[in-house]
Amino acid sequence: MSKLLIVDDEQSMRQLLTLVFGRLGHEVRAAENGRAALELLRQESVDLLISDVKMPDMGGIELLKAARELSPEMAVIMMTAFATVDAAREAFLLGADDFIQKPFDIDVLKKIVAKALEKLDLVKENRALKRAQAERGHLGNIIGHSERMRAVYQMIETIAAVQSTVVITGESGTGKELVARAIHNLSPRLDKPFISINCGAFTETLLESELFGYVRGAFTGANANRKGLFEAAHKGTIFLDEIGEMSPTMQVKLLRVLQERKVRPVGAHEEMAVDARVIAATNRDLQAMVKQGSFREDLFYRISVIPVELPPLRERREDISELAHHFVSKFCNQTGRRLGITEKAMEQLERYAWPGNVRELEHTIERAVALEPTDEIQYERLPEQIINYNPTRVTSALGLPDEGLNLVAHLEHLEKSYVLEALRRTGGNQTRAAELLYLSVRSLRHLLDKHDVRNLTAQLRDTAARGAGE
User: Fold this and answer.
1) Ramachandran bin of 8, using left for φ above 0, alpha for ψ from -120 to 50, beta for the remaining angles
2) pLDDT tens track for 8-18
3) What is the Cα–Cα distance from 60 to 82, expressed in whole angstroms?
4) How far is the C-alpha of 321 from the C-alpha of 352, rounded, in Å?
5) What domains sit in the chain, N to C, each tagged with a CATH number?
6) How far is residue 117 from each of residues 46, 326, 366, 450, measured CA to CA in Å?
7) Of 239, 240, 270, 429, which is the most exposed, with the fewest CB atoms less than 10 Å away?
């Protein structure tokens, strides 16, 4: 409910109106004259001011003038026992929403207050819509003016109005969820829910109950019906991140939902219709997974009606400076600081390959802002791997031998080497190793099985535990 301020030099009137509107659920403040009311308005915001016109010390008209400067959007109702046309005209010219003569019918005042608050709600709603429109005009928090990103913006604006399923592809950290939200925010579904879920973060059973919900008694612990995310996203958008991590069984169930537009909660006998636009995302090559038999071909074609590919940060280096300054502003705002970036530091940021993409850049800037004692982020405050990065040395290290090489076998060897090194550094901790490689835990486990090294994780954990014990 709303916050009201009652201003009247008669204590009985203040008490009456405080009681009446308090019972309606409003938060009510009271003041005995204009000066006391003005002091309260300086300390806290109020939605509606109800003030007498004739009061000692500071009258209602004078209070109205001062209150309008403090809170231009606040609703105001003036009341007086000495109503004149001139007084009413002056009150309206100063921005009063209504004018009532004492003595009055309390039910009439209730209606006037309800009307004024309804008008205020419309003003707030209009402001919120304008703010949303402004955010939509900038496509949310997506930043960059490179040619590759301009093509992405154009694609977002083109597909937002249609209802087709979208799949967003790109490396980890490129901003796939930001693009999904931008599509939703530009669509006719803007005022409906945007629901996001990472499919790689749940087991098959948990993912099914999260997406489709369950009924009471469906399994141990299901003590009440629970709505699934598809139902929660009705008329809105559901974002299925890391869809490539979904199990074959769940792929079948998702395909049916996309075809039938109906979901069946776990343990239920009846299906329910849902209308949720599906936007999926993955950092994996779904076409290659289809060929390998790990991703259903029919589901692939169902979700990839409209594909959107996000470029890695190394392929849009002209955006690095804008992104870096954006993140500096973001983290400085949280701490109340003002920082710049030295030219040497920016040159190294633009030179680095960014395997973790925009997410890695954001974390790098957050760390630099936290550690920087001066008014500019220095080169020395960058992480060691960025300071030591030398693209010339990397290029020469990857030189092609004169006799050639088996590229597939070589890449397989590199992949296995990086997986083993990540496990070694983390003492066999798969979650931390996956973070080092910018993979989901499920993707890492797939590579462990692929290279037949899953048993090494237990050995590394045991080694790390023995080392800690010693």
Assistant:
1) beta
2) 999 999 999 99
3) 12
4) 12
5) 3-129 (3.40.50.2300), 147-311 (3.40.50.300), 316-394 (1.10.8.60), 404-469 (1.10.10)
6) 11, 38, 43, 64
7) 270
